[in-house]
Design goal:
80 residues; mainly beta; three-stranded antiparallel β-sheet; 1 helix; 11% helix
């Protein structure tokens, strides 16, 4: 996550029809490295580094039943 400071306390910074950052109390944050570099080029102070890419979510697959296990007793008596 990048922290952007400098030049202004409140408001938005726009470039090319795109909002690069919104400042509140003199600070803005972004996780987009391209926006951070554009703000740096405009003279803002940029601190921090890009977030690492998120690991893809893996679906939890249930363990297959153990086929070598003995069958469970049903609790019923045979031959009544």
């Amino acid at each position: 996550m990048f922290k952007i400071t400098g030049k202004q306390k409140f408001g938005a910074v726009w470039a090319g029809g795109q909002c690069l950052a919104v400042f509140q109390k003199g600070e803005a944050r972004t996780s987009d490295p391209a926006k951070a570099e554009a703000l740096r080029a405009l003279g803002y102070t940029v601190e921090g580094e890009a977030d690492p890419p998120a690991a893809p979510e893996t679906a939890e697959t249930p363990e297959p039943p153990d086929e070598t296990a003995e069958p469970k007793a049903s609790g019923k008596k045979k031959g009544g």
